[in-house]
Amino acid sequence: MRDFVYIAWRYLTFHYWRSLTLLLCVSLIVLLPLSLNLLLDETERNLLARADATPLLLGAKGSSLDLVMSSLYFSAEPVSSLRYDEYKRVLSSGLALGIPIYNRYSARGFPIIGTGIEYFEFRKLVVEKGRMLAVLGECVIGANVASDLGLTVGDHLVSSPENAFDLAGAYPLKMEVVGILGRAHTPDDLAVFVDTKTAWIIEGLGHGHQDLQTAPADVLLQYENGTKTANAKLEHFMRITPDNIGSFHFHGASNEYPLTAIIAVPHDDKASTLLRGRYLAEDTGAQIIRPRGVIGALLNEIFRIKNVLDSVLGLISGATVALIGLVFALSLRLRQRELATLFRLGASRLTTVRLLSAEVAIIVLGSALLCVAVLSLIHVYATELIRAFVIR
Fold first, then answer.
1. Higher pLDDT, 56 or 12
2. Are the C-beta atoms of 258 and 81 separated by less than 8 Å?
3. Would you say residue 230 has pLDDT above 50?
4. Residues of 146-176 as b/e, b for ≥16 C-beta within 10 angstroms?
5. Residue 226 burial (CB < 10 Å; 0-12/13-18/19+)?
6. What's the rounded Cα separation, in Å, for the pair 376 and 28?
7. pLDDT interval class at 6 (50, 70, 90)
8. Which residues contact residue 53 at a Cβ distance below 8 angstroms, ignoring those fewer than 6 apart?
């Protein structure tokens, strides 16, 4: 049998273009459905794990899917804001722990998530280098942010404007990196975390500037009844330091400050039912949802599309198999003189069948090895592929 394999191998390597084409065609027939199923299974696992870990999510009324994707997976799609007093309402209810989320801005392509210290405890995130957030203007970054941007503790990261053409928008804030989170293999690896108040400063609701009592005369626009009004020359700080942190202040009522979502962690099932009932019974402009149900509905739609794709892939695979059979049939007709020579040399029909079977076996084996290698790579980088093409 070894002789048949050697002769078949020599023949395939001599006609390497035809052999390579057959190898790729057979591999694609197997790879397309298997890789699709692998990625969908990994997508389901990633999405459901994050959703199952989040009991309830509170946000402004609108698309529940957009709310979940923005708050749990930090997608860039903007969602409507709700007032900060909704967060206070959750806390005052005594039914659940509330965790504020404000996802509106980004820094060098990574989302800036304004939240509280309780978020890190809830998600079981641990600071691997540096320390946790302590004062305004500091940020803690995910493992992927640190590696992709080459940042370490002590470096700085500047926020990006929400709209590049918004000339009246807030000044970009230069944030100090005080901590790097350990790799969690979740969307948290791709986020820049700041305190909620720091996010509001990026929004422009809070700012710091020169003390008008000591400001130069050319900065003052008006002085009337003991009140000083500054002109455009007043220096606004774009970085919060120990020297100027005392000058930062907020305008307006804090109850009206924006949040994009609130993660509600009920104390028990009864508390969960009571909290949901409050928002179902009242028209507050807010909605409370179970992320598990929203993601489950999304996955049902994905798998419905998958069934259609499987049918299309089945038809394509059938056509490809027929084409490969046609190639082999045409190859046999072109090799009639070669096969006749083998017969004249004393080779039996069984010998000819063995030679052709060895060629097919080598191609199938090569395709199997190629499929295993590609599927192994997809399995290793499945999470990154999902974040690149599905979640983000």
1. 56
2. yes
3. no
4. beebebebeeebebbeeeeeeeeebeebbbb
5. exposed
6. 15
7. confident
8. 123
Task: State the pLDDT at residue 343.
Answer: 73
User: How far, in Å, CA of 84 to CA of 317, rounded?
Assistant: 55
Determine the average pLDDT of the residues in 280-294: 82
In SS3 terms, the chain reads as: CHHHHHHHHHHHHHCHHHHHHHHHHHHHHHHHHHHHHHHHHHHHHHHHHHHHCCCEEEEECCCHHHHHHHHHCCCCCCCCCEEHHHHHHHHHHCCEEEEEEEEEEEECCEEEEEECHHHHHHCCCCEEEECCCCCCCEEEECHHHHHHHCCCCCCEEECECCCCCCCCCCCCCEEEEEEEECCCCCHHHHCEEEEHHHHHHHHCCEECECCCCCCCHHHEEEEECCEEEECCCCCECCECCCCCHHHCEECCCHHHCEECEEEEEECCHHHHHHHHHHHHHCCCCEEEECHHHHHHHHHHHHHHHHHHHHHHHHHHHHHHHHHHHHHHHHHHHHCHHHHHHHHHCCCCHHHHHHHHHHHHHHHHHHHHHHHHHHHHHHHHCHHHHHHHHHHC
Please state the rounded mean pLDDT for residues 36-57.
Answer: 84
Q: Is the pLDDT of residue 51 over 60?
A: yes
Can you state the angle between helices 336-344 and 349-380, rounded to 10 degrees?
A: 130
Neighbours of 209 (CB within 10 A): 16
Query: 52-66, 167-181, 360-374 — which is least confidently predicted?
Result: 167-181
Mean pLDDT within 372-376: 90
Whole-number Cα distances in Å, 144 to 39, 83, 149, 360: 21, 31, 8, 45
Which residues does residue 195 pair with via DSSP β-bridges, in sequence order?
115
The model's pLDDT over 292-347, given as tens digits with 9 standing for 90+, comes to 988 888 888 777 777 777 777 777 777 777 777 777 777 777 777 777 777 776 76
CA of 376: how far to CAs of 23, 31, 34, 38, 137, in Å? 18, 11, 11, 10, 43
